[in-house]
Fold this sequence. Notes:
By secondary structure, the protein is an all-alpha fold.
Amino acid sequence: xxxxxxxxxxxxxxxxxxxxxxxxLAREEAPFAVPSLKxxxxxxxxxxxxxxxVGGACLLLATLLGLPSLLSAILAVSALxxxxxxxHEDGLADTADGFGGGRDRDSKLLIMRDSxxxxxxxxxxxxxxxxxxGVLDGLLHAAGAGVTLILLVAAGAAxxxxxxxxxxxxxxxxxxxxxxxP
Length: 182
């Protein structure tokens, strides 16, 4: 595989999964279109590692500046939310609202497509953010900032793994559903 294609696919994956302001590369045909996940599947964990590094670097910098571990963890989680555009948080809130408030399949899907956040979604977001901050704070105390940085990069790479054919089919279905939604 050529280095140009690897860099190109990494940029495409980063544009899709993050809000990093990446320019269009010279050989890209449609740099800001919805990507083919099949084509960039191998680059998705690399993009996750880059995103995880942003949070880890923020955590490391805050720790080196002498900030308390809890505040360092809050800043790292905030950086990850900002870099991803709250992509995962939005999905979590929609899912929690749908399963918490829906009676049947159709009402759950209707609730999930609603852009407003409900009480289940709000609670899920708060609990998720608190857990992530708590885990990072605990890791800082147990292992130090360097190890925590490495773990954030690894977690980012692992969280964005979309390599199995079944995952690809599901991802393509989600994209088609999202494109068809009003």
